[in-house]
Task: structure prediction
Amino acid sequence: MTMQANFSTAHLPFRTFTKDILVKGKPAKKRCIEIAGQQYTVSCGFANVVSLDDEWFEDVKDPDHVIQTIKRSGLGADIFAFWQRPPDQEPRFNFYKEWESVAALPVRGYDHWFSKQISSRLRSQIRKAIKEGLEIRETAYDDDFVRGMTEIFNETPVRQGRPFWHYGKDFETIKKQFSTYIYREQMIGAYLGGEMVGFIMLGDSGNFGLTGQIISKVKHRDKVTNNALIGKAVEICEKRKLPWLVYGYWTNDSLAEFKRRCGFEEQRVPRYFVPLSLKGAVALKSGLHRGWKNALPSQIKSPLKKLRKFLYGLRTDGSAERSLADTSKDSN
Result:
C-alpha cells in the first residue's frame, strides 16, 4: 500500500492501494485510489477505466476534482467513468455520455405490487406456493443462514446457461466472502418445511433498495420462490420509505422476462465517460471503452450465448435440450 499526496492545486490528498475483491466469484486483487474519502477501482482492458467502487450506493462528490486527481496520480488510467444513480435521469454534466438501462420497480406497497404490478397468473402461483407451505421472512446473517446459502449454491454447477460462480464453495468460504457488506443489507429467506430454499440480500442505497444476491433451489422452481422474495423486498422498501426497488441492469434475456413479470420497468440514466489519455480517446471513438464483449453487435452475441448454453448443457448432464429448458425456467 502506498500513500501519495498532491498539494499543487486543491490541497486534497489521495492514496493508491490494492484491494482483495471477488471477480466472477473468485478472489482477485484490484488497483484502487481513494479520493476525498471515496474509493475508485481500475478495470484493465484495452483501456484502463477508473470508476467509483461503490457506485450503486454512492454518488461521485466532485467529478472535476476526481479527474484532476487521477491524472496526477500516476495510476495509468485512460478513462474515468461515472453515472447518475437511479432515479436521477436528467443529465447534469457536460461530459460525453451514454444511457444506462436499469431495472427499477416503483414501490407503492406490497398490496399494490401484488394486485396491480404483477399478472393474475403470478398472483395465483404465489398464493398456491404459500398454501403449500412457502414462507418468506426477514432473517439474519448467522450460521443457519450461511448453511442454507451453502446448500443452495452447491445444488447445481450451472445456472442460466453458464457455470455458477459459487458452486463448490464450503461454509467458511461463503461466510467470509458474503460478510463484507452485511451492515447495509437485509437478509430475506424463503423457507419450506424448515428448509431454506431461497434468499435475497437486499441492499439499502439511501435512494432505493437494491437486490444483491437473489437465488433459490432449482428443485423448488414450481414455488416461484424468487418472485415471492421480490414481493417481500417491496414490503421492506415501503417500510424503509425507499421509493424504488432496483434489480441491476435491464437486459434482453430470460432474466429480463423475470423482471418484467415482477413489475420492473426499464429506467435510463446517464453514464459519463471522460478520456484521460490518447488511448482512452481511441477507445471511446472505437466503442471499446466498455470492453470487447460489449462492442460485439447483438446479432453475434445472441448466437454465441445460445451456443454456450448448449455446450454447458452437454458438459453437465449430457442433455443440451434439458439445459436450455432449465435455463428458461430459472426466470420463475
Observations:
- Residues 202 and 211 are 5 Å apart (CA to CA).
